[in-house]
Structure formats: structure tokens, C-alpha cells
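RECORD TYPE: protein structure
NAME: Riboflavin synthase
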Amino acid sequence: MFTGIVEELGEVTAVEILDDASRFRLRGPVVTQGAQHGDSIAVNGVCLTVVEHEGDEFTADVMAETLDRSSLGALTVGSRVNLERPMAVGERLGGHIVQGHVDGTGTVIERKPSENWEIVKISLPADLSRYVVEKGSITVDGISLTVVDAGPDYFTVSLIPTTLDLTTLGLKQPGDPVNLEVDVIAKYVERLLGDRATAGGAGK
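PREDICTED:
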């Protein structure tokens, strides 16, 4: 489990295209401290497993399913990525509960800079819109953010200078894809209410 608080802005150093997967080598001096084979690291919000670790770099295999459902397939050598290690038991939950399981991708529509922050508008797949509400939480490229405005096919977030400086959202331009993970609590509530409605109907 992750919190959506990015630990560092890493970099893709190599990409190997396999038959039904890709292998990425990524540099991240912070997240590789103490890393071992089998550990999890979130890369742009996608939970990946460390295959190899040497120095400040690690490799991870990404299967076709993940490449199809996320924006990782668009990464090339030199791409910057958000990196986060799993939350340790007993640590503060600085963002919100993030699983590292991407629900879909959106696209940066526009950016509106101001003196102290920037509003970013992002497209939202129709099947995810019901989980996104104003002042609710959403994960964008692994970053825990608060929704400012929620429309039927878009949402906006307000980014402070720290987020712009230390994450990929400071680099994304209109047309660029981003990974989206909605609040898992909303999905559980929907499922529970649906099951209750079905059970109630069956008993009538």
C-alpha cells in the first residue's frame, strides 16, 4: 500500500521490449536504499516489483496488461517518473490509501498558472467519473491530490509549487497521458450498496 506522497523524481535509464512485456531500468537513489529483489516500488502510480537492484538503479518487468491499462508503455530512456516505496506499518498516512493499481488513464487538457499555484485540467474516462467528487481524493501518476472541480468527463486539481517542482506534473503538457487511480473506498462502498440492494430485492 502507498500513500501518494512521491519520494523522488526518478529517471528511466533503459527499456527492453520483450515478447509480451517490457523491462525497465530506473534510477532512484532514495527508493533504492535497502531495496531487495521482490520489493515493491510505485512508478508513476503503478506498483512494480524489483527484479534486480544495483547501486541507485533497479529493474522491473511490466506485463502487457499493465502496459495496456497505464501510460508506462509511453516511457522512453530519459523519461522522468514519480517513485514511492510502500508505506511502512506505523508511519503517518500523509496522502490517502493508494494501491498502485491503475484504474485508467487521462490526458492533461490544460494548465492555468497563477502566482502561487497552478490549476491543471485532466480528462476522465466515463466509467470512472462516478468515483470522483469535489474535495475527494484521486491519484494522478502516483500523486495523492484533492479534486477541485469534478465534471462528467474531466476533473481539475490545484498544484502547489512543491508538487510542480518535485513530481512529473511539473513537466506534463496538454496532450500528455497520466495514470489515474480513484479512491478505493468509493469502489468498496459502491459494491456493498449494490450487494445490499440485490439482497433486498431477492427477499421481497
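COMMENT: DSSP finds three helices and twelve strands in the chain.
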